[in-house]
Write a structure and sequence with these properties.
Elements lengths: L24 E3 L5 H14 L9 E4 H8 L6 H12 L2 E7 L5 E7 L3 E5 L2 E5 L2 H8 L9 H4 L5 H11 L10 E2 H8 L10 H19 L2 E10 L2 E11 L18 H9 L3 H11 L1 H12 L7 H9 L6 H4 L2 H5 L8 H17 L2 H13 L4 H10 L7 H11 L11
Antiparallel strand pairs: 1-3, 2-6, 3-4, 5-6, 7-9, 8-9
Helix pairs in contact: 1-2, 1-3, 2-16, 6-8, 9-10, 9-11, 10-11, 11-12
InterPro entries: Initiator_Rep_WH1, WH-like_DNA-bd_sf, WH_DNA-bd_sf
Keywords: Plasmid
Family: Belongs to the initiator RepB protein family.
Amino acid sequence: MDEIPRDQLTGALRRGAVKKHVAAIHVSGKLTLLQRKLSNVLLLNAYDTLISRTRHQIDARTLCLMIGYNSNDMETLKQSLRGLAETVAEWDMLDEKGQQEWGVSSLLSYAKLKGGVCEYAYSPALAEKMHDPKVFALINLNIQRRFTSGHALALYENCYRFVRTGSTGWWPLELFRRLMGVEGSAYYESFKHLNAKIIKPAVDEVNRTSNIILTAETRKQGRVVSEIRFRIRENPQLAILDIDDGEGMRHGPVYARLRALGVSDRLARQWLGVHGEDEVEAKLDYVETRKNVKSMVGYLSAALDGNFGSEEDAAGQGGAAIAAPATASVSAQAARLRRILELVKSRSPTQRDADRRLFLSQLTEARMRDDFTRHGWVSPLNAGRISAFWEDMSPGLFEGIEGA
């Protein structure tokens, strides 16, 4: 959305920003590592339409792949979704008017699996809080995948939202135990045990694995530790893994070109974070030279995925690249390609990433993998495999195409 000229604003609106308390949305730490990863993938998949839609969908196989378990293990997925629906998210913060607001909601209001698709929803109040980047920090999936401990990922999530302030502030130990999912345990009532088994290992993994570095500090009441806080600074060695809220990206010339082309703010920042400015700029230069392209944004999306085929290329270079059966006509080849690219385009960025990694995992030969990495879904060496892959993902995809 374009900025409103400040000279058109009056009164308090001219301040440009309202000072807001850095909010705390506390989620029970009793989620398993898989459930915590599942929660983040679902949020990322829904984020762009979190407020505008009441229901969200994602391919169940894609979801399993993104979390890291067997794509046919629907029972584990059901169990994980059930855990999210039974988990409480709680917030206590100041609103824009400085009034205290407390709220509680289940993490998912519902979830269902039908026809290979996972459908789910958030309560309106929680969706509003999670959509505000000042309140809830999206967790980069590149970083999330590196975690092996649920306690470490829980600590990372609860600290990352404070990265700009440099500190979490003081947490009572009872709150910290709840965030880590060990409240009610007599063993962890002892700070000595809590420190040795939870705090130190979790801090160590966050510092080794993520884009931030934590330092734990404690405060005592008498001789007993009563509060804990974490100092936070960026990890310069792993900062490349981070996709932040885009303040720096918004000032670059490549971002400006993307926005002028009609790319949404969030998608522009995501592309720049994943591909880097140089690659995005090169693909922009390429796309802008093409003629008779119906959707420049769609074509650019395909180009960044390595799919340079548009409808014009489908009958020429792209169509030749994906020719599957040698007996198929050029028009049938082009029709296959069009349907594949249309299907790829219709999927969310999260799903497209999972599709590519799922297909890559099925390629055993280095030359096949290299060719797919270079050319994406129009890879000449993988043409037959690509057709079979997408027909398996979407049965009937090629129905009505002569020779299909």
